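Q: What changes when 2'-deoxyguanosine-5'-triphosphate is included in the input?
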Amino acid sequence: MENAEIARLFRELADLLEIEGANPFRVRAYRTAARTAETHPDSLVELAKQHPDQLTELPGIGEDLAAKIVEIVATGRLGLLEETTHRLPKGLTALMRLPGLGPKRVRQLHDQLGVRTPRELSAAVASGRVAALHGFGPRTEARLRAALAEHREENRRFPLSVASQYGEALLEWLRQVPGIAEVEIAGSLRRRKDTVGDLDILVTARAPAPVISHFAEYPEVEEILAQGPTRAAIRLRAGLQVDLRVLEKESFGAGLYYFTGSKAHNIAVRGLARSRGFKVNEYGVWRGETRVAGRSEREVATALGLPLIPPELREDRGELQAALAGRLPKLLELKDLRGDLQSHTTGSDGRDTLAAMAEAASALGHEYLAVTDHTPALRVTRGLDREGFRRQRRAIERINAKAGGLTLLAGAEVDILADGSLDLDDDTLWGLDLVVVSLHTALSLPRQEQTRRVVQALRHPAVDILGHPTARLLGERAGVQLDMDEIYQVAADRGVILEVNAQPDRLDLDDLASQAAIRHGVRLAVSTDAHAVQELGFLRWGVDQARRGWATRENVVNTLPLPALMQLLHRARASGGARKNTSPPGGMQRAGKPRPHGRRTRSRQGDSPPR
Ligand code: DGT
Ligand code: CA
Ligand code: CA
Ligand code: ZN
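A: The predicted holo structure follows.
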C-alpha cells in the first residue's frame, strides 16, 4: 500500500463528507491527512506497522486519524469510507473535480436528478434537465458541457509523483517473482513527464507465465483488462492503468527504448535509422534479417551512431539533431542544487517553525534556504506584514548566528495584486534578501490584462523571482492566460528569475516553458515552495521538469554557492533600478559592492541618491 493510496482514501472520504454537508473542520482534517500522507517521504505502512505511536507526530494527524491509518494498513480498507459510500455513490467525487461544481451543486444534482457519475451528468446535460435546475442556468450548463468533454474519466492523467508511487510499489511486487531479472518502468513516467496516462512496465524473466499471474494477483487490482502469454494490462483501484510486457533478454534494450517513447521521438529515430540502412523496432536494430543490437539501450544507440539521449529529452524537440551534432546539453542534476529559494513557515501557512525548517534543510545538506512567507493580501492564509517580516528577520539572524552550514535568507512571497502592484511596502521589500512575487488571486483576468499585471510586478526593481509563474494546479486548473514570450522578454531584460516550482501538483514552469525561458536568456530557480519539513524533499520533481526543459546547471541559480548567488541577485536588482521603472522616482537604486550574505540590509527608499 502506497502513501498515495492512503491519501486517496482520505481525500475521497473528505469529498463525500463535504457533499453530505458534514462539519467543515472534519472535512478539512481528512484533506490535511491526505496531504500529509501524500507528501510523507517514507512509507507510512512501515511506520504504522513498526511505530504506530509515532503516527500522531505527523502534521495534522491526531489519535483518530492515526487509528484510521493503522486500519487502512492492516485491512487495505477504510470502514468509514465504505459506510459513507453506502449512503452516497463513489462517482460523486469525480463530479466534484469538474470546474464549477462544488459540494452543494453535486448534492443538488444527486438529490434532484439522480446524477451519480460524470456519464450520467452528460446525459442530464444533453436532455436539458441540468439547465432547468434552480441556480444552474445556461451558462453553467455550457461550462459543464465543455468540462465534461475535456475531463472524460477515461482520459484522466495522474501527476508524476502519484504515478511514481504506484509504479514503485508495483516494481517491488514484481521483484518477488522467482527468476525475474530486469524490471523497469518505461513510457512517460521514465521520461518524467509531468502527468502520466498509464504505466508501462517491462521485465525479463526465466519464464513469463509466473510473472503474468503474479501481476494479475496484485492486491490493488480493480480489473484485469487483458492477459496473454507475455503481456497483461490491469486497472488499479485508483484508476491507473498498467501495461506489463515480458521481453526476451536479447531485445530488452530495444523494447525499453521503444516503450519509453515518446512516439514522436521513436518516429524520428526510425527515420534516421532508415537513412543509415537499418530498421528499428521493439525487438532490435536490424540490418536485413540480422539483429545488430537490442540487448541494452546503449547498444541500440551506438548501433545507430548516437549517444544515449536522456529519456527526459526524448520528445522530438531537437534532441536528435543535438545528439548528431554532439551538442546534447549536460542536464541539471539534483546534486547540483545547493539550496532552496522558496519555503513557508508557521509565520504564514507553513506547518513547521523557522527553526525546524532550518534544521531539515541543513540535514539535506543545503547551503541556504530562503524563507518566503506570504504577505497579508492572501486572506485564506495568515500572511506577515511589515512588522512580521521585521520580527522574522531578527529570528533568522539569531538562527544564522548559531547555525553551522546553513544560511537562512530572509525573503517573502509577495502577492501580486490585481493591478500589478505588490502587497508589501518598498521599505520592507528592500529590507529582504530575496523577493519572490506570485499570483494567487484574480487568476481569470483576460490575457492582455494579466500580462500587463505580471509585467508591472516584474518591473519593480526589488523583485528577484516570479514564483509558480502560471499558477496552474495539475488536475485542477490550467494556468492563467499570459503572453509568455513577453514575460520571458521582460524577465531577461530585468534579470528576474523564473521559478520551476517543484510542488508535485504545480510543476510550474513546465518543461516547454522552461525550455522557452532558457532560450530567451532567462535564469531559472528550482524551488520546493515547502510548507512543511517533508516538502523540502520535493526538489527532485522540479529537477525532472527542468531537465525536460533542457536546463543545465548554468541555467539554474540555486546551483550557485551563496556568495555568487547573492552577487547575482544584487546585480539584477541594481540594474533593474537603473532601467526605466514604474515605481516612484527618488528611490530604488542601490550601488556599491555586494554585501556578505545573510546580513544584507538593503538601502531604504531615499537613502541612496538616484543615478
Ligand atoms: P502516457 O501513457 O499517455 O502518459 O504516454 P506514453 O508516452 O507512456 O505513451 P503510451 O503508454 O501510449 O506508450 C508507451 C510508449 O510506447 C510510447 O511513449 C511510445 C511507444 N509507442 C506506443 N505506441 C506507439 C506507436 O504507435 N508508434 C511508436 N513509434 N511508438 C509507440
Ligand atoms: Ca504510458
Ligand atoms: Ca501504455
Ligand atoms: Zn505561492
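Observations recorded in class: The pocket of calcium ion (ligand 2) is lined by residues 187-188, 197-198, 200 (CB under 6 Å).
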